[in-house]
Amino acid sequence: MASPYDWMDTELAQLQTSNMRRSLRVRQSPHVAGLVQVDGRQLVDFGSNDYLGLSSDSRLVDAVRHAAGQHGWGAAASPLIHGHGVLHQKLAQTLANFKRTESALLFPTGFAANVGCISALMGKGDHVFSDEKNHASIIDGCRLSGATIHVYRHCDPSDLQAKMQTVQPSKKLIVTDSVFSMDGDIAPLPDICEIAEKYHAMIMVDEAHATGVFGIRGSGVCELLGVEDRVAIRVGTLSKALGSVGGFVAGSRSLVDLILNRARTEIFSTAQPEAVCAAAIEAIAIIESEPERRQRVLQLADRFRTQLKQAGWNVGNSASPIIPLLLTNIGEAVQWHQRLLEQGFFVPVIRPPAVPANQAMLRLSLTASHTDEQVERFLQIRLS
């Protein structure tokens, strides 16, 4: 008699046939000096979002050790049930100061922050306008909110405005990444702010891949483009340039208080360990005192991107440490991924649903810890 679970093997076989089956690799080392050990091999690591090389920095490690010794590990319950710790409070205030907002609220992950914020702010009868290449957490937050969703063309203010014109007066939210996680390009935030102000809409910007990297202070693209005072809802993560784990929203006290009372991903999630917060607090201090880290990664990415174009690669409109190598089909991307592994490079292959159907890319991520020699070695690879 057939098992009611047999369909799972059939689905997996179909994924295998279409080059869509994924599996977990075993990573035996952290990202250090641009290198990582995966499945027993040392590889040049172009897969990490550790843009400033802080995830294994001894100062963060020491901060975690000290905090764990003082505060233990698990937080035991959700913040509204059990309260939040002194380091949770300190990190929230540090983030608010860093983002120059009145307040900030922590989430267990960046995904939880996006889902929680959008679903807390919007509901049935409201309208959300979302860039077509927004992160999956934004997409899921829009869906779970119950609001009417309008997807506008990627980084296209004219299409956004055209869609805004079709909506009668109501509560409206425009939501976009500042740096897009796959393409590495930057949203036209000043244009989006103008449209929001014209049509009386709120703006939410996810600075996950920008916090710590862009701006004179490292606050993000909102700072870089001079729209900090015009973007009232700023979401981010601690897991990329800050080298820790968790998410946050920064904004007014009223915004943070409302989200605290409504966001299900906050209300029903145990807080992250306080030692995690200690790492993020230390990372922000380093970001503010060592601007050379973000200068290094941005300069390296600019040079690498130019050289890749000259070598014949299609890198799209990347303007960040994320550099996509756009390929014609999924099979080609998988083959290139394997070929690069054989030559000592770890470069993730990106397939749907992270990119649109029938598209694929190799996603290079630069960090401040990569060396010029590692980049030069990659550039020696031939396209044919």
Characteristics:
single chain, alpha/beta, 2 domains, 7-stranded mixed beta sheet
What's the topology here?
Layout: H1 6-17, E1 35-38, E2 41-45, H2 58-71, H3 79-82, H4 86-99, E3 103-107, H5 110-121, E4 127-131, H6 136-145, E5 148-152, H7 157-164, E6 172-177, H8 189-198, E7 202-206, H9 221-224, E8 233-237, E9 247-251, H10 253-262, H11 264-267, H12 274-289, H13 292-310, E10 322-327, H14 330-342, E11 345-346, E12 349-350, E13 360-365, H15 372-379
Parallel strand pairs: 2-11, 4-5, 4-6, 6-7, 7-8
Antiparallel strand pairs: 1-2, 3-9, 8-9, 10-13, 12-13
Overview of the molecule:
The protein is of the alpha/beta class and 384 residues long. It folds into 2 domains: 26-48 and 291-379, Alpha-Beta Complex (Aspartate Aminotransferase, domain 1); 58-289, Type I PLP-dependent aspartate aminotransferase-like (Major domain) (Aspartate Aminotransferase, domain 2). The protein has 15 helices and 13 strands. It has helices spanning 6-17, 58-71, 79-82, 86-99, 110-121, 136-145, 157-164, 189-198, 221-224, 253-262, 264-267, 274-289, 292-310, 330-342, 372-379, and strands at 35-38, 41-45, 103-107, 127-131, 148-152, 172-177, 202-206, 233-237, 247-251, 322-327, 345-346, 349-350, 360-365. The strands form 3 sheets. The protein has a 7-stranded mixed β-sheet with strand order 3-9-8-7-6-4-5, with helices on both faces. Helix 2 (58-71) packs antiparallel against helix 12 (274-289), helix 4 (86-99) packs parallel to helix 12 (274-289) and helix 5 (110-121) packs across helix 10 (253-262). It is globular and about 55 Å long.
